């Protein structure tokens, strides 16, 4: 049983003690832990001197093995799991803090006022008015005079980080030179900004790693970040042994800036693959950065769609991109030394490791002919008519082969022969800008885009197909599904964090990939009772295809992949391909739809990409497309809608400078606080944690007034779950005390009376270790008669004496026994036998549970809650529920583990 929450938990031994004498214990415990750490470090030093490469001599379950690239000069290491963290830690030595980081702003308040005006998008006149008001009542030196002074200071500050430059791009079309403006930052200088920054620099990872986790018998490799995958390792093997890879992730796509899409921009976003995902995909200085603004060629009615004009547009794109890459091209061959944040000079060789783009943009990057070409895939040479045959394997494209084919085509004597040669692999007669980069293969850099290939791609097609079947079945089916959806989501299906809910979906189309993803997770649970295997075999088969697709998408979403999950993912891909082959064959005479579209085929390359470049969040376009929003806002608020590219990019760069200065000011404040305002140890001992730490499993919230058992029982008359409530609780506490060797108060068994008091809580924050990335994840659970206008009683997985069970929260409370408070949950267990498995449960991989009668409600310690879950009621079978295993990746793997353990897959 967990002790009273009012007791203090020692952060060193994780045991609980009364406040009296707590400081003395904690100081002694801390001293003991420090001594143990010193002993461990001494032992490691001795082993190192003895020539031992690993820090753990005999591996234990979950130990992490790190094998560094041979060129790193670092020996293989083995760490105990609790000592390992995915990604680099914080810098050991605090960076030097600039005492005046706001410069060239003359004072701190000058910067903060300019920052506020920038964030609020104030007009010139509003800035002048604000400054006049501040001058009338100021308590520290404020020197800005007007908007012009603010603008001049922003311009002076712009050189703190790599600014934009403008170049002309000249490309001939039909004998006439066409000129375009191209804005870009130096990619190399931008990377140096990061390498030399004392906050971002320590997080860089320069050497390829192969990571493995010990499962009790062998080390199983796992992959997450780019440097843990194969391409990073291969590239480090190709450059000099004393050099380090500097890997770039580049994204490009058109962005609608105006409401109706008439005004468009064409941003290029860069991220550094040497930085951890949390930083690289975050919003700070180390996150994604707009580094280019490609020209958009206006359509010409006279020439649009013709091969010459299409080639012209592609030439403009690659000529512009070549200017962006120009600073990296010589360095990719010769390398360059950089003095980094830690004053160490390192030699770097840049590579374009990942290209993040939707299919249309990948066609441009690869210079293939797209949907109308004989071979529409940018990765391999699959014929157009075989795109739906996902299991078939085809020859991969390479930059070397494409370059040789273009050269051979240009040697031909006639345009007709040239066209035949190029069309044999669906290539365009345009030089590829990426070919100038040493060791960069554009076809290997192109990556699986989960957002556009799956969420807005494969599921879009599957969803449209299901909508067609529903329409053909008549309005009654559509109404039935939507009614089930309403019941399913708002009566039985609780609202769940990070999951959209819909009141009806059958007739609605969404362009939002997140909403498509959420519909895909729920639709099979909503429709499985509408279409029967014998009555509606084709729709039933389509639902099986959708379910298989959802499983595939869950594997695509994993934040960490192991050898086992990649194997299981490939098996799921094969199953999806098999079901789709059957469906396409069975409905060939009933539908005119062609399933030969590129996005369904691109799934064939998913797991190859994961092994080569890490998990899909390394190259998903979703973080990049989020950056379109601020660009659109800048267009609306900070431009005169004419020649807006330069105005948007100036505002974008000002935002970067403001963010940079703000981070330095915050560092200065933190340093000053640590020097002057940090409480001493006795004061720190009295501070209370407001957030649960990694070692705290749960915290309770939404506290209600203290009430007696008598009041609780009166309020719940007629509710069988509360029959004998106090007696059940007494029995539970006595069993728990005995099982956990907790002394009975005054030596007597627990016997709570009707006048004893309990305190109800309607919110639980549960921390648990994710099965996906082994980090701490958090569920926010509700147990409330009224939450946002509706009752909300979430379901949970509980560790019971007989194993893990599913249950529904009915009441969460604390009660006092002796002088100790115990957190308890009254739950309705879902562990009744469900009988023989249904055929559809096997077809859809449903995990079915059955609720006990409400009179069988049981008490459990809140500590025994493993995590929250979602259970969907099966309206055709009383008291039976389906476990929704698609809410998140941990739940998906957890249910796969349960199926494997029970032999039911």
Helix content: 25-40%
Largest sheet: 9 strands, antiparallel
Number of strands: 28
Distance between the termini: 35 Å
Low-pLDDT runs of 5+ residues are: 1-6, 39-56, 86-92, 484-492, 677-694
What does this protein structure show overall?
This protein is an alpha+beta fold. The protein contains 28 helices and 28 strands. The strands form six sheets. Strands 17, 18, 19, 20, 21, 22, 23, 25 and 26 form a nine-stranded antiparallel sheet that branches. A seven-stranded mixed sheet has the order 5-6-13-12-9-15-14, with helices on both faces. Strands 4-3-7-8-16 form a five-stranded antiparallel sheet. Strand 22 and strand 23 form a beta hairpin. Helix 14 (450-472) packs across helix 16, helix 17 (537-557) runs antiparallel to helix 18 and helix 22 (628-638) crosses helix 23 (644-676).
Topology:
Blueprint: E1 8-9, E2 16-17, H1 22-49, E3 64-68, E4 77-79, H2 108-119, H3 124-136, H4 147-157, E5 165-173, E6 176-184, H5 187-195, E7 209-214, E8 219-223, H6 230-238, E9 243-252, E10 255-256, E11 264-265, E12 267-272, H7 277-280, E13 289-293, H8 307-325, H9 329-334, E14 336-339, E15 345-356, H10 359-366, H11 399-410, H12 415-423, H13 442-445, H14 450-472, H15 475-492, H16 513-527, H17 537-557, E16 561-562, H18 563-586, H19 598-602, H20 606-613, H21 622-625, H22 628-638, H23 644-676, H24 681-685, E17 698-708, H25 709-715, H26 725-739, E18 757-769, E19 776-787, E20 790-793, E21 795-800, E22 803-817, E23 820-829, H27 839-844, E24 848-850, E25 858-861, E26 865-869, E27 871-873, E28 880-883, H28 889-902
Parallel strand pairs: 9-15
Antiparallel strand pairs: 1-2, 3-4, 3-7, 5-6, 6-13, 7-8, 8-16, 9-12, 10-11, 12-13, 14-15, 17-18, 18-19, 18-22, 19-20, 21-22, 21-26, 22-23, 23-25, 24-28, 27-28
């Amino acid at each position: 049983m967990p002790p009273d929450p009012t007791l203090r938990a020692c952060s060193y031994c994780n045991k609980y003690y009364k406040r009296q004498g707590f400081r003395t214990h904690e100081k002694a415990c801390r001293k003991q832990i420090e001594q143990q750490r010193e002993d461990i470090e001494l032992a490691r030093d001795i082993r190192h001197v003895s020539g031992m490469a690993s820090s753990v001599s005999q591996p234990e379950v979950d130990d992490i093995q790190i094998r560094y690239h041979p060129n790193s000069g670092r020996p293989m290491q083995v760490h105990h799991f609790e000592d390992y963290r995915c990604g680099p830690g914080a810098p050991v030595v605090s960076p030097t803090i600039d005492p005046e980081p706001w410069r060239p702003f003359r004072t701190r308040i000058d910067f903060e006022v300019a920052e506020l005006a920038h964030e609020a998008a104030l007009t010139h006149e509003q800035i002048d008015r604000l400054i006049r008001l501040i001058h009338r009542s100021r308590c520290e030196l404020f020197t800005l005079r007007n908007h012009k002074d603010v603008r001049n200071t922003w311009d002076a500050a712009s050189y703190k980080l790599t600014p934009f430059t403008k170049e002309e791009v000249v490309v001939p079309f039909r004998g006439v030179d066409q000129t375009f403006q191209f804005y870009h930052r130096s990619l190399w200088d931008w990377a140096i900004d990061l390498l030399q920054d004392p906050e971002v620099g320590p997080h860089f990872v320069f050497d390829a790693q192969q990571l493995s986790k010990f499962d009790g018998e062998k080390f199983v490799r796992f992959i997450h970040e780019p440097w843990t995958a194969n391409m990073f390792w291969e590239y480090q093997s190709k450059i000099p042994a004393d050099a380090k890879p500097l890997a770039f992730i580049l994204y490009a796509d058109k962005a609608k800036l105006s409401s109706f899409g008439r005004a468009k921009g064409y941003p290029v976003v860069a991220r550094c693959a040497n930085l951890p995902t949390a930083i690289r995909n975050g919003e700070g200085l180390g996150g994604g950065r707009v580094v280019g603004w490609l020209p958009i060629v206006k359509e010409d009615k006279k020439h649009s769609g013709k091969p010459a004009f299409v080639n012209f547009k592609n030439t403009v794109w690659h000529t512009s991109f070549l200017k962006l890459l120009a600073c990296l091209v010589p360095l990719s061959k010769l390398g360059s030394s950089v003095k980094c944040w830690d004053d160490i000079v390192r030699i770097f060789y840049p590579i374009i490791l990942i290209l993040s783009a939707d299919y249309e943009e990948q066609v441009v990057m690869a210079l293939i002919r797209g949907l109308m070409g004989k071979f529409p895939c940018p990765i391999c040479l699959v014929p157009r008519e075989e795109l739906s045959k996902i299991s078939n394997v085809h020859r991969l494209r390479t930059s070397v082969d494409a370059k040789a084919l273009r050269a051979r085509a240009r040697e031909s004597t006639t345009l007709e022969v040239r066209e035949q040669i190029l069309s044999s692999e669906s290539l365009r007669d345009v030089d590829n800008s990426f070919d100038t980069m040493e060791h960069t293969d554009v076809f290997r850099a192109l990556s699986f885009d989960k957002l556009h290939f799956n969420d807005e791609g494969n599921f879009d097609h599957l969803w449209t197909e299901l909508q067609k079947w529903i329409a053909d079945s008549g309005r009654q089916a559509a109404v039935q599904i939507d009614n089930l959806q309403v019941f399913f989501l708002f009566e039985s299906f609780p609202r769940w964090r990070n999951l959209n809910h819909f009141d009806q979906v059958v007739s609605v189309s969404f362009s939002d990939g997140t909403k498509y993803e959420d519909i895909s997770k729920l639709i099979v649970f909503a429709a499985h009772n509408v279409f029967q295997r014998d009555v509606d075999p084709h729709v039933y088969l389509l639902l099986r295809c959708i379910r298989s697709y959802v499983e595939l998408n869950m594997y695509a979403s994993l934040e960490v992949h192991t050898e086992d999950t990649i194997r299981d993912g490939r098996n799921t891909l094969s199953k999806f391909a098999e079901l789709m082959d059957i469906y396409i064959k069975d409905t060939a005479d009933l539908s005119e739809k062609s399933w030969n579209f590129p996005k369904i085929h691109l799934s064939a390359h998913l797991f190859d990409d994961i092994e080569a470049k890490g998990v899909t969040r390394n190259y998903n376009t979703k973080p990049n497309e989020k950056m379109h929003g601020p660009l659109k806002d800048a267009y609306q608020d900070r431009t005169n809608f004419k020649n807006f590219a330069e105005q948007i990019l100036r505002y974008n760069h000002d935002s970067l400078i403001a963010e940079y200065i703000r981070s330095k000011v915050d560092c200065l404040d933190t340093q000053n606080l640590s020097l002057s305002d940090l409480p001493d140890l006795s004061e720190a001992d009295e501070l209370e944690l407001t957030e649960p730490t990694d070692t705290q499993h749960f915290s309770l919230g939404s506290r209600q007034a203290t009430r007696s058992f008598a009041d609780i029982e009166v309020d719940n008359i007629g509710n069988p779950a509360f029959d004998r409530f106090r007696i059940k609780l007494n029995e539970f506490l006595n069993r728990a005390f005995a099982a956990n060797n907790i002394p009975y108060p005054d030596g007597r068994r627990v016997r709570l009376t009707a006048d004893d008091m309990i305190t109800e809580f309607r919110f639980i924050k549960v921390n648990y270790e994710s099965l996906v990335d082994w980090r701490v994840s958090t569920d926010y659970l509700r147990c409330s008669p009224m939450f946002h206008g509706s009752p909300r009683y979430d379901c949970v997985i509980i560790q019971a004496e007989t194993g893990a069970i599913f249950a529904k929260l009915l009441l969460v409370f604390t009660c006092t026994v002796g002088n100790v408070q115990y957190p308890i949950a009254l739950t309705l267990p879902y562990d009744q036998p469900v009988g023989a498995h249904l055929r559809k449960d096997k077809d859809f991989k449903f995990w079915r549970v059955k609720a006990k009668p409400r009179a069988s409600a049981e008490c459990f310690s809140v500590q025994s809650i493993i995590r929250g879950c979602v259970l969907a009621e099966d309206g055709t079978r009383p008291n039976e529920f389906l476990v929704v295993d698609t809410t998140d990746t941990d739940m998906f793997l957890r249910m796969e583990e349960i199926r494997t353990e029970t032999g039911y897959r």
